[in-house]
Specification:
single chain; 3 helices; 6 strands; Immunity protein 52
Amino acid sequence: MSTRVGSLSSDYFTNFADISTGYSVEPDPAIIATPAFKAALLALAESFDATYCRAYPAKIMDAWDKNRPLRLAWMHYIGPRFAPLITPPPSAIVERSARGALLLSAVDQTFCVDNPAHMAAAREILEALAPFEALPWPPDAQPE
């Protein structure tokens, strides 16, 4: 598992975190499981007051559209400021925090890129994030 927090570039989020599995390692469902990934994602998001976070198996990067700011993932966290923009799709597992943040998960088990149902749910969630993605980038930039 790897994590990154902070800003990746000036064209990206000011406050961001992601968690992924190792690229050349097949995730062990006993270790790379929803409870562990969700807890880690929420801990990072809350600790860093993140605008956006995601958790994903590294293998899903092969399906990413590199021209989009947001990418396919197992879980997406949208901070309280932008969560009201999102209407979760019926396929998503939805959780809201007391602060108003939104957590959307494609599945409640270890995400498998080779499972068409998992990928379909991930795609539906990504499309539901379109109003957030359509904002001027980065959406959480501080006024100069």
